[in-house]
């Protein structure tokens, strides 16, 4: 059974690394179960349609978004992916976010749950001038 999950995981990784706005509905979305759960630091949704809206939002608000899965660990129906997400903002400044996803497959091998973990303070909030100084102060407070 674990070979089935490995094959499904490799298909999922392939879909992420080759994802475009044009192939979102044909490449990535078929890999999710109908009532899949998706969570990242800004979203918590259930269902393929809601998940697709999150990815469409990504394509609508970034330029040239791309994912690279650097490594993964698979244990039965659960996998952890370490990834890098790169994109350009509207001013053509490049951004890079490194994170981890926990992915759970159902009995058929469809993605039942996908939860992203990444540091919003480091990658988003510290880039906002008003918040940057507050975050730096907090970081200094907790460092020896």
TrEMBL record:
User: What's the domain of life for this entry?
Assistant: Bacteria
Instruction: Name the InterPro entries on file.
Output: NTF2-like_dom_sf (IPR032710), SnoaL-like (IPR037401)
For this protein, the record's SUPFAM superfamilies field holds: NTF2-like
- Gene3D superfamilies per UniProt: 3.10.450.50
Q: Identify the residues that the record assigns to the SnoaL-like domain, covering every copy.
A: 15-87
Task: Tell me the protein's name.
Answer: Nuclear transport factor 2 family protein
């Amino acid at each position: 059974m674990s070979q089935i999950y490995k094959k499904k995981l490799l298909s999922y990784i392939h879909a992420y690394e080759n994802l475009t706005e044009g192939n979102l509905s044909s490449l990535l979305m078929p890999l999710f179960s109908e009532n899949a759960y998706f969570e990242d630091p800004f979203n918590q949704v259930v269902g393929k349609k809601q998940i697709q809206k999150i990815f469409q939002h990504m394509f609508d608000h970034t330029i040239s978004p791309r994912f690279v899965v650097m490594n993964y660990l698979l244990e039965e129906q659960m996998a952890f992916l370490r990834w890098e997400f790169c994109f350009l903002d509207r001013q053509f400044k490049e951004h890079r976010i490194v994170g981890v996803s926990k992915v759970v497959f159902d009995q058929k091998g469809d993605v039942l749950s996908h939860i992203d973990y990444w540091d919003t303070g480091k990658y988003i909030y510290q880039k906002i001038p008003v918040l940057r100084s507050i975050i730096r102060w907090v970081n200094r407070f907790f460092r020896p």
